[in-house]
Amino acid sequence: MARVLGSDLTLNPTQIERMVRQQAAAREEAHRARNEARKLTKEERREKIRTKCQRELMEECVVAVFRVLDLTNKSHRFKLEANAQELHLCGICVLQAPNNIVVVEGGARCVKKYVRLMTHRIRWDARP
């Protein structure tokens, strides 16, 4: 800033510093206002995510099949269903005592996240 202002800086440094701080604050406020104006509403964000998942599904449909020994824990079943809905996946869960089958299909990215849920995030050995 000293090179730009030159001799004015030496005449009244306090006033120049105040002016520089005001200009910086104005630029920052304008930046925040532009970001706020560009920000999507809740409904627009939801629509954007839904459109993105549909576009991904048009490109490639991936299917994942899981065999789960114990699906008696209701919290596990809730997690499976809630995550499938959030990730816009279709599928079925067959509850047959020794071999429970979970089949999901959807876009590659969504199925990848669901596989991570099934293999890492859910503690299958936990008791209700």
Can you put this structure into words, describing what you see?
The protein has 128 residues and is of the alpha+beta class. A three-stranded antiparallel β-sheet has the order 1-3-2. It starts with a helix and ends in a 7-residue tail after the last helix. The chain has six helices and three strands, in the order H-H-H-H-E-H-E-E-H. The chain has helices spanning 2-5, 7-11, 13-38, 42-59, 74-86, 108-121, and strands spanning 62-68, 90-94, 100-106. The model has no long low-confidence stretch (mean pLDDT 88). The longest helix is centred in the N-terminal third of the chain and has 26 residues, at 13-38. It is 62% helix and 15% strand.
Offer a concise description of the structure.
The protein is of the alpha+beta class. It is 62% helix and 15% strand.
What is the count of DSSP helices, taking H or I runs of 4+ residues? 6
Topology pattern, helix = H, strand = E:
HHHHEHEEH
What do the pLDDT scores average to?
A: 88
The dominant shape is elongated
Biggest sheet architecture: 3 strands, antiparallel
Total count of strands: 3
Helix-strand layout with pairing:
Elements lengths: L1 H4 L1 H5 L1 H26 L3 H18 L2 E7 L5 H13 L3 E5 L5 E7 L1 H14 L7
Antiparallel strand pairs: 1-3, 2-3
